[in-house]
Design a protein that fits this description.
This protein is of the alpha/beta class. The protein is built from 10 helices and 5 strands, in the order H-E-H-E-H-H-E-H-H-H-H-H-E-H-E.
């Protein structure tokens, strides 16, 4: 019996050594996982990101957009309502303001803004959301810097009506006929909404998703056999917004900066997605201020 045990002793010792080694490996792995987990959260705390209040609006002045919201930008009561909203948004205390204007006009934009700071009662020939809202937010916040990040690119959002659609004409035509049927949560009569309620609607995630779909993604249902006419036009709108985002990234910003960005709703929708994924920026909840 003893001889039999001795015969298997080397095997038993090897098995015990293997079990001990496996236990040590598991302990090391657990320790590494804990360290990585701690390091991950520690690094998150150390990274300081630029805060952005990404605010969407309709164009309050002249616009080339296919859909224009009726709004008398020269009406004094409308101006008073806009300034009331500006007062709420100014509580964000932005150090930088970003607007939907071409960067090549930045000097002219800053000069006009500084003139407004000196004389808030000045009148503009064709005021837009920039002069009515962005300038007032900046004045109330004592903001010194203002930039445009727009980039113009032509794209044919009517391409689906101009070709023989051989991809998915049924879906495209149904959506084109009444797109809000697919978004019942935002299917309201905007003409009956107050100014503040229109802006609240525009900044809801469901509405921003709708704007991306109706301005770009729905075009992927339109095209001829073996071609991508709709998708290619939609890609141009994605490209335009990516180039606008690139213009934002050209601006020197510090982690201590607080950026108030005001653009048409579809741009706000794209920038919402860009900022959410960004290692540099962090999104501020618009509804913390839009009350």
């Amino acid at each position: 019996m003893k001889l039999t045990l001795l015969r298997y002793l080397p095997m038993l010792l090897a098995l015990l050594a293997l079990l001990a080694c496996k236990k040590e490996v598991l302990q090391i792995a657990e320790a590494d996982t804990e360290f990585i987990s701690r390091s991950h959260f520690s690094n998150e705390e150390e990274i300081s990101k630029v805060s952005i209040l990404n605010f969407g609006t309709f164009h309050m002045g002249n616009t080339n957009d296919a859909h224009k919201t009726e709004f008398d930008e020269k009406n004094l009561d409308n101006k008073r309502k806009v300034h009331k909203i500006a007062n709420a948004l100014a509580k964000f205390k932005p150090t930088v303001i970003i607007v939907e204007r071409l960067p090549k006009y930045d000097k002219k934009l800053l000069a006009s803004y500084n003139e407004y700071i000196k004389n808030p009662k000045m009148s503009f020939k064709n005021p837009s959301e920039i002069e009515l809202l962005a300038f007032e937010v900046g004045r109330l916040s004592n903001t010194k810097r203002i930039y445009g990040i727009d980039h113009h690119m032509d794209y044919n959002y009517m391409i689906g009506d101009e070709i023989k659609n051989q991809i998915d004409a049924t879906m495209y035509n149904q959506f084109d006929k009444n797109p809000l049927v697919y978004y019942p949560q935002i299917n309201v009569n905007e003409d009956k909404l107050s100014l503040i309620d229109k802006l609240k609607l525009t900044n809801q995630d469901d509405y921003l998703d709708f704007l991306i779909e109706t301005n770009a993604d729905i075009l992927t249902h339109a095209g001829t056999n073996a071609n991508f006419e709709g998708a290619d036009e939609a890609a141009k709108y994605y490209q335009r917004n990516l180039r606008m985002y690139s213009n934002l990234n050209r601006i020197k910003l510090e982690p201590t900066d607080r950026v108030f960005m005001i653009m048409g709703g579809s741009h706000t929708a794209f920038f919402r997605d860009f900022i959410k994924r960004s290692p540099k920026y962090k999104m501020v909840d618009t509804f913390d201020y839009l009350k």
